[in-house]
Each structure stands twice: as C-alpha cells, then as structure tokens.
C-alpha cells in the first residue's frame, strides 16, 4: 500500500491528470439534446471501470468530495493503474509523475531513469481485453516510457535554442493607450502569479479588448502609452495567441485551428473536429513545457460551450486572458481555485479628461474642413465643468465619449445640448449607444450607411475591394464613406502585411446589421455582389491558363496563400449561398473550390458538393451536375472510405452523361474519368477483376491530357497492387510528364505511389525526391500533404531497416490523420504499417 504523506498536493496533481483525460476521445461523453447523463456514464465512470473501483473512489482520490475524504493510503496496483491510464492517454510528463509520487511513501529516483519508470508501470493493474485485471503489455509500457524520455531530450535541446518571438496580435486599436493604470497593474501582477486565468469584464465600449491587446503587446516586449508607466517590467512570452469571438461568436473548430496554426502544427483552416481537440491540447502542452504561452480569447461570452470546456482543461504553463460582457465567475468557479477578475468601469475623472483631450486633438489632425476644425477647436475651450458633465453623461465609457465628440464636432449641437439629450436617453448603456448610433446614422450619407450595413457579412475584417464590392461603391464613394465612418469613430483601420483592413467594434457591426435586417431588398443585392466578388477572387487566385475547362481550370498548381488568408470570408459566403433562395452562387463557388477543398476539408467538399449537385439538377445544368457527382463527390467519398456512397454518385453522374452530347469535350472526358474512377474504387474494395475489366476499356481511349493523366495513375495503382513496381514507375512517370503539357498537377497520390514503387525497387534517392514533391511548399505544407509524406518516408525507413525512425515517421502520419480526417481511406494502411514496424 502507498501511504499518502501530502494528501492535498497528491489530490491536486492527480486531479490535473484525471481532468486531462476528460477531452480524450475514449472518455469524451457525447450528450444528445435534452440528455444530461447518457447511458449513466461519465468520464470518471469509464476510468473507474478500467480500474475496478467505484467513481466515488476516484472522486475521493482527487479531492472532489472534500479534503477530509482524501484517503491516507491507496493500493499500489490501483495507484499505478490510474497513473498508467493518464500517462498512456494524455500529455502528462515525467516531471508530473515524479511530483505525484513524491507526495507518497513510494521511493523516487531523481533524475528518473527509464528502467525505474518501467518497473513502476509494471505494477499497474487495469482491465485487459480478456476482462481480467493485470499489468499493461511490455510493448505498451516501452512505447510510453520512450515518449516520456524523448520529451526530456527534446526539452534539453530546446533549452539552448533561441526561439523566435511569435504572436498573431491584431494592430493596436488606439494610437495611445490612456488610463486604466490600476487595472493594468492588477493584470501585470496576475501574470506574475500562479493563477491560470484572468477575466476582464465590463459593458460594451469600456475598453476590454483594448486593455487585453495592450497587455499582450507589453508581454511581447512592446509596451506603449500608460502600460509603460505601470510597474517595473512585464513578463515576456515567446508565444502569444489571440483569438477573437467578436460579435459573430466563435466556433470550436476555428478556435482550435487558430491555436494549432500559431504553434506551427496545422493550418488555420476548418478541418474535421473529431479528435482535433486532443491533438491541439497536446501541442499546447508540448510547447508550454519549455516556454509559457499566453492565450487571449476576446468576447468569450459569445463563444461555443466546447471552448469554455477546453479552457478549463488547459495544461500548466498556459496563461489565459478572457474578455466578456458577462461576469463568468460562476461558470469558472469550480474549474479554477484561483481566478483573477478585473471589472472595468468608466474611466476615472482625470483619465477621462486625458482621453477627451486626446480624442479632440486626434480629430484636429484628421479634419480637413475649416468649419469642422473651428468646431473642434471650440471643444478645447469648454469649461472643466461641462467636460465633467459629459463624462458623467457617458458613464466614463471611452467608446461613448468618442462617439459624443464625433457628434459634437460634426453637427451644430452645442456640448451642453448633447449632454442634456444624453441624460434623457436613459441610464442603460444599450439605450446610450442606441441614442448615439441613431443620431450618427441619420448624419451619415447613403453610401456610408451602405458600408455600415454590410460590415456584418465578413468573418474577418474586410479590405477595401471586398467591402466596397459588397456595398456597391466605386473607389471615390468608398473612400469618402470610409472617411466619414472614421470621423464618427465607427471603424479603425488596421494594416497587416502591407494591406489595409477595417475593424468595427461589435456594437457598430450589430447596429448596422439591425438596419440591414429592415432593408431586405438592399440585403439581397448586397449579398449577391458579395458572392460575385469572391467568385472573381477565386478566379483571380486559383484559375490556371491550362487546361481550359469550366471545372478542371481550377486544379491546384498555384500558391494558395491568398486563398488561405481570405478563407474565413469565403467560407461565410459558401455557408450563405447554400441557404440562399437562389443557389447559383453556390454552384459557381463549388465549381472553383472543389480541388482546393480536397486539401483542407473533405467533409466540406462532400457537404457542399452534394448541395451544389442537387441544385444543378434543379436548374438542368446537367454537365456541371455530372462533374459534381463524379469528381467532387465520387472522388472525395472514396478518400473518406465511403465506397458505397462513392459508387452511387459516380453511377448517377455516368447516367446523366448518357443523355448528353458526347461531342462536347467535357462530356466525353468525364465519361472516361467516371469509368476510371469506378476502377479505382474497385481497387480500393479489392475487386481487382472488375477494376481490370474497366481499365481495359478506357486505357487506349483518346482523351485530353488531363484525363490521360488520371487514367495512367489508376493503371499505376493496379500495377502497384500486383507488385509490378517497375511498370508502375513507368506509368506514374508518364502521368506526371503528360500533366506538364497543361502546367502540371500537384497530385499527392501520384508522387506518393511513385515514391513507394521506387522504395520497393531499392532506389531510395529517387523515392525521397518523389516524396519531397508531395510538399507544394515545405515551409507551409498542409496536413494532407504531410500525412502522405510521413507515411511514405516510414515505408522507406522500414525498407532500410531503421525501425525507430520508421515508427516515429509513421506515428506522425497517424497523429495528423487523427487531427485532419480520421475516416480517410489511407488510415487503415498506416495503422497496419505501424503494427508491422512494432513487430519488427
């Protein structure tokens, strides 16, 4: 029996480990609507079942039932059993393992040795597959121990390497940060404390986002304004991650993508959620072992509930700043014993006077009208008493004060009159903003109102072209309207990588959206222009000169960075177009981004491809429907291993083509490709005779190079299956040579299978060259490329007899599959290779 010498610390350390299991797919409880406890099992019940104890026993171990219920001793087998489950399933490291054992009477070896940890874990007693209780398998323990000590080596190596300072902070919202010295100092002190979470709460316009942003910049080594005068210094973070929920709310997928992207693990693009939550948490844990991470979630109160749950299970080393209109103390009280809350109120009198003075001078610098300048200069001379009344009328709210100054400077209303009117507006901030925005709205000309209304279309701040296009404004009208919005303190320009974007406070966007909902005719026109703009955007950044086809012209072969940067807005257009009354925009979008979606999100390609195919059918656009069913859907469904669904769509597409004129190149080509794709499907289903019979029909048919390329690839796959590696190489090389006629394709499977064929012919240098060509850009390779690359390299390393490196490369492929699309068809092959390597 293990005696617990420090029960409190034992419970806290074990609780951290147990809670980290909560997000693991094996323990995640998926509740249906109106269901509070599915099947009567919680994640603790599942852990308890594996240990052969009750869930209340585990609750007592982790202190959940109170300090007096923490036991004085625990059976060694049960203790090491729960430690084994945690170490196998989570990212908990060797330091955690040692600290926990130090709270017991179990002897601890420091520094830890692999042989000692192995001996400890062999004492674990958990439920086996044969329903008996016993120790884990030796190979399972060896795998965990290797990971634990590999992390230590990585940590030691990284300690001596200078890590680059990284953050994704938006441009500062203000030219000078004024006031909030007490609040800023409180946050600085929190940063230096062990408390993991700081909540900044307050009414809209109080400056929650601004203060969080200024604190983040100070932690990035760039304090400014009043943050410079606070304290003696700021702690430095090597990784600062900014996530904004803003007025739109924040999806869990976007949240995870942002974190993963900033840590250099995956792209900031929507992918399958499945097991990504666990992969991202592991990435955070791995990074924060060496360097602390600062995570800021702006407007957390509008985010999905899964994000709140994720935050309560963050690893040690991650500090979190949350901003919220709601006070979320009750929500997080049980999760965090120590949480700092900063309640922002109106600016203090002296700070408010400084802010008023700064805003007035800012207007003077940007005003070109002599008449307006005269009005603004008069504001400098108003008495302190009137200024104080204005501060009281706006409750010291910075946003309300800025709007008030904008209103006074642009109208004939005297300051005292505005103060009087503000007093009549009511006492709630909602009424105050409604009053100020309402009067500002009336002063805006029609073009400015148009811009204001369509601001809600965008998922990320728009640039000039996209915003002007949605509003239907030419360059001159746009700049006049933007200047008016800036004058009225409605927007803030932000320059990112040389491009100008326009941010609007969530209250501004919400007010514009309210007017848009009352102007349905304008909304229909604006959304149509918005959709057309992004169709043109895709043509500009995706369309190739060759091949010249309505569908194949958008094959990948260009730098995708411009598409990735604008993807959140493109996705929002895609979502709208699928729900719009007329779905022509959806058809145009899917025609252009089907191939792009193959790299970033197969479920999205399938979901929207099916909608586009159905609507093309309604519009009698039969050729496009056939493209969608055969290639967009058929190909993607094969990739996610839904062979029955793929066959259904391919057959439907071929049936459509039977009634179309085969003299049309696209129709003729598509018939051949549909048959070749059926052959590829049968190869996947291990129906070789059917696959060969179809290929025999199409292999000598004269088609355009783009279809010849695809038929040759399927023929190569057949040779690979029969282990005719030399012939497979000839076919793959011929396919790639043919594609050069129309500019070349970045066909992942072509280079992957070519590399595999070279591996089996012991031509390792050529194999490596083929695998390298899978990566379009090595510095910005996306997940699907990396999956095939690491899987290919694992086969090469295994063939060379380097089992350790082969296993490491193959595990990278498996982890990427888990976070990208677990149902991808290649998964089974990768897992089989893993078993083969482990057996060796």
Describe this structure in words.
Keywords: Repeat, TPR repeat. Pfam families: NB-ARC, TPR_8. It comes from Metabacillus sediminilitoris. With 840 residues, this protein is of the alpha/beta class. The protein folds into five domains: 2-159, no CATH class; 166-343, 3-Layer(aba) Sandwich (Rossmann fold), CATH 3.40.50; 349-443, no CATH class; 446-518, Winged helix-like DNA-binding domain superfamily/Winged helix DNA-binding domain (Arc Repressor Mutant, subunit A); 519-621. The chain has 38 helices and twelve strands. The chain has a six-stranded parallel β-sheet with strand order 5-7-8-9-6-10, sandwiched between helices. A hairpin with a 5-residue loop joins strand 3 and strand 4. It is flat, with a radius of gyration of 31 Å. It starts with a strand and ends with a helix.
- As a whole number of angstroms, the C-alpha radius of gyration is 31 Å
CATH class of the largest domain: Alpha Beta
The CATH superfamily label of the largest domain reads P-loop containing nucleotide triphosphate hydrolases
Helix content: 55-70%
CATH structural fold name of the largest domain: Rossmann fold
The number of distinct β-strands equals: 12
Uncertain runs are 33-40, 153-165, 266-270
Shape descriptor = flat
Domains, number? 5
Largest sheet: 6 strands, parallel
Query: Which class do the helix and strand fractions yield?
Result: alpha/beta
């Amino acid at each position: 029996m293990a005696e617990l010498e420090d029960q409190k610390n034992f419970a806290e350390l074990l609780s951290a480990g147990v809670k980290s299991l909560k997000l693991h797919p094996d323990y995640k409880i998926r509740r249906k609507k109106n269901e509070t406890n599915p099947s009567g099992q919680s994640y603790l019940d599942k852990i308890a079942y594996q240990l052969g104890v009750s869930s209340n026993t585990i609750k007592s171990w982790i202190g959940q039932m109170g300090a007096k219920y923490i036991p004085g001793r625990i059976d060694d087998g049960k203790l090491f059993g729960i430690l084994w489950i945690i170490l196998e399933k989570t990212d908990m490291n060797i330091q955690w393992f040692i600290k926990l054992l130090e709270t017991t009477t179990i002897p601890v070896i420091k520094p830890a040795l692999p042989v000692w940890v192995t001996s400890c874990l062999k004492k674990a007693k958990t439920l086996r597959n044969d329903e008996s209780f016993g120790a884990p398998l030796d190979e399972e323990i060896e795998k965990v121990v290797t990971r634990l000590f590999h992390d230590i080596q990585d940590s030691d190596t990284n300690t001596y390497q200078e890590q680059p300072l990284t953050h994704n902070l938006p441009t500062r919202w203000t030219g000078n940060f004024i006031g909030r010295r007490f609040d800023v100092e409180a946050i600085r002190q929190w940063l230096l404390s062990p408390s993991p979470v700081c909540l900044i709460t307050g009414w809209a316009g109080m400056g929650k986002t601004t203060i969080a942003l200024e604190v983040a910049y100070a932690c990035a080594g760039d304090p400014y304004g009043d943050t410079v005068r606070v304290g003696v210094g700021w702690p430095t973070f090597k990784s600062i991650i900014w996530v904004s929920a803003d007025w739109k709310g924040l999806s869990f997928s976007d949240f995870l993508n942002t974190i993963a992207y900033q840590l250099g693990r995956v792209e900031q693009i929507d992918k399958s959620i499945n097991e990504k939550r666990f992969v991202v948490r592991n990435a955070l844990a791995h990074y924060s072992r060496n360097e602390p991470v600062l995570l800021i979630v702006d407007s957390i109160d509008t985010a999905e509930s899964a994000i709140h749950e994720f935050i309560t299970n963050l690893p040690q080393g991650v500090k979190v700043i949350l901003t919220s209109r709601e006070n979320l103390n009750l929500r997080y009280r049980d999760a965090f014993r120590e949480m700092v809350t900063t309640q922002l109120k109106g600016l203090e009198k002296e700070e408010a006077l400084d802010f008023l003075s700064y805003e007035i001078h800012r207007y003077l610098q940007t005003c070109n009208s002599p008449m307006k300048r005269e009005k603004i200069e008069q504001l400098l001379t108003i008495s302190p008493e009137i200024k104080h009344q204005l501060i009281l009328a706006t409750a010291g709210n910075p946003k309300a004060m800025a709007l008030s100054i904008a209103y006074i400077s642009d109208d004939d209303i005297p300051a005292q009159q505005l103060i009087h009117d503000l007093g009549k507006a009511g006492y709630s901030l909602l009424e105050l903003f409604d009053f100020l925005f309402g009067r500002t709205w009336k002063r805006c000309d029609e073009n400015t109102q148009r811009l204001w209304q369509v601001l809600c279309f965008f998922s990320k701040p728009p640039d000039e072209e996209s915003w002007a296009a949605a509003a239907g404004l030419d360059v001159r009208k746009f700049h006049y309207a933007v200047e008016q919005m800036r004058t009225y303190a409605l927007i803030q320009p932000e320059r990112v990588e040389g491009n100008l974007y326009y941010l609007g406070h969530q209250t501004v966007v919400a007010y514009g959206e309210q007017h848009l909902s009352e102007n349905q005719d304008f909304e229909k026109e604006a959304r149509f222009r918005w959709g057309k703009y992004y169709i043109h955007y895709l043509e500009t950044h995706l369309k190739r000169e060759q091949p010249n086809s309505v569908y194949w012209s958008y094959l990948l072969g260009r730098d995708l960075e411009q598409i990735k940067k604008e993807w959140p807005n493109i996705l929002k257009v895609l979502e709208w177009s699928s729900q719009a009354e007329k779905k022509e925009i959806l058809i145009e979008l899917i025609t252009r981004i089907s191939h792009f979606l193959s790299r970033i999100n197969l479920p999205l390609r399938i979901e929207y491809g099916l909608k586009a195919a159905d609507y093309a059918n309604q519009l009698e656009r039969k050729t496009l429907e056939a493209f969608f069913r055969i290639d967009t859907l058929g190909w993607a469904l094969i990739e996610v291993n839904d062979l029955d669904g793929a066959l259904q769509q391919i057959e439907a597409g071929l049936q459509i083509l039977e009634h179309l004129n085969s003299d049309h190149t696209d129709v003729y080509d598509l018939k051949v490709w549909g048959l070749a794709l059926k052959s590829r499907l049968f190869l996947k289903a291990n129906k070789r005779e059917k696959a060969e019979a179809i290929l025999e029909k199409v292999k000598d048919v004269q088609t355009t190079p783009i279809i010849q390329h695809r038929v040759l690839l399927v023929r190569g796959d057949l040779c690979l299956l029969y282990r005719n590696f030399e012939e497979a190489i000839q076919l793959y090389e011929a396919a790639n040579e043919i594609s050069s006629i129309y500019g070349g394709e970045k066909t992942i499977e072509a280079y992957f299978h070519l590399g595999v064929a070279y591996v089996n012919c012991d031509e390792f240098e050529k194999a490596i060259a083929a695998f390298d060509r899978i990566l379009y850009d090595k510095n910005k390779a996306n997940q699907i490329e990396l999956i095939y690359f690491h899987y290919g390299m694992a086969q090469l390393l295994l063939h060379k007899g380097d089992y350790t490196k082969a296993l490491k490369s193959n595990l990278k492929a498996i982890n990427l599959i888990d976070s990208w699309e677990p149902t991808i068809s290649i998964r089974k092959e990768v897992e089989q290779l893993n078993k083969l390597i482990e057996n060796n």
